[in-house]
Fold this protein.
Amino acid sequence: ENETYILRKIISNYPLKSELEDFRTELMLIIRRELTNPEGTTLERIRRKIEEKVGEFTENISTLIRNIFHETINEIRETYFQEENKRRQEEGEEELKFKWIGPDDYRTTEVCRRIKERTRNGVTLEELKRVVREEAIRGGFGWFYSELRPFTPHPNCRHTFIPAV
């Protein structure tokens, strides 16, 4: 099922795209709070918290949870690396470059394979965002891609970015 359809089922009284993004942001906040919980957390606990929020449509929620979890982790990574690049700039060091990594198996999409290939030598964060957007659109996921989640080119993405050494 496409993610927007799942979101519409869950919050059918919020049909506007902006309201869907607000709902997604709210779910991201739940995940972020759980990830920074000083007592620790588990994926099961995060799933239960989100199920409390969305109500009865739990059979459709696992894809949504995986996608939002992926987006939240990548948002945290981006913030950290932006801060690291600021520090490097202040100290006269070279800006970090990044590459796309993840599993290479039968579930790996052509989109992620192409992103890996295009970033194998390292690119800036802004270049990486551009490559992810271009490949998402090229791969037929333009309906899914959003500037609000620039490192998630398609549903159920298992790839992320790391500094290219």
